[in-house]
Write a structure and sequence with these properties.
Blueprint lengths: L1 H25 L13 H25 L6 H20 L6
């Protein structure tokens, strides 16, 4: 059952990356975020980095169950996720 949940979370992470790619290529933003987002490029990059970081978390826990996990993967995932969060925050700040 844990593998099913982890695979579903990995699919969600890849969906976040897909939304980020769509945001970068077309400028599309979720309807509930359109009022806040002032920089679509930073918002799209934030989605991509957050999705990749979340995917690294899921892969770490998938292999942690088999005893082959690497803490480097967890650290990379945390850094990517934090970069994505910062970029999504920057996307909502107005210019000077």
């Amino acid at each position: 059952m844990i593998y099913v949940v982890l695979l579903a979370m990995m699919a969600f992470a890849l969906g976040m990356v897909g939304l980020g790619v769509a945001g970068l290529t077309t400028g599309w933003i979720h309807p509930w975020e359109r009022g806040r987002v002032l920089r679509p490029v930073a918002h799209g990059l934030g989605h991509i980095f957050s999705g990749c970081g979340f995917f690294c978390f899921c892969v770490f826990f998938l292999f942690a169950l088999s005893g082959d996990a690497s803490l480097k993967l967890l650290a990379v995932g945390a850094v990517l996720f934090l970069i994505g969060i910062v970029l999504r925050g920057v996307a909502s700040f107005p210019d000077r």
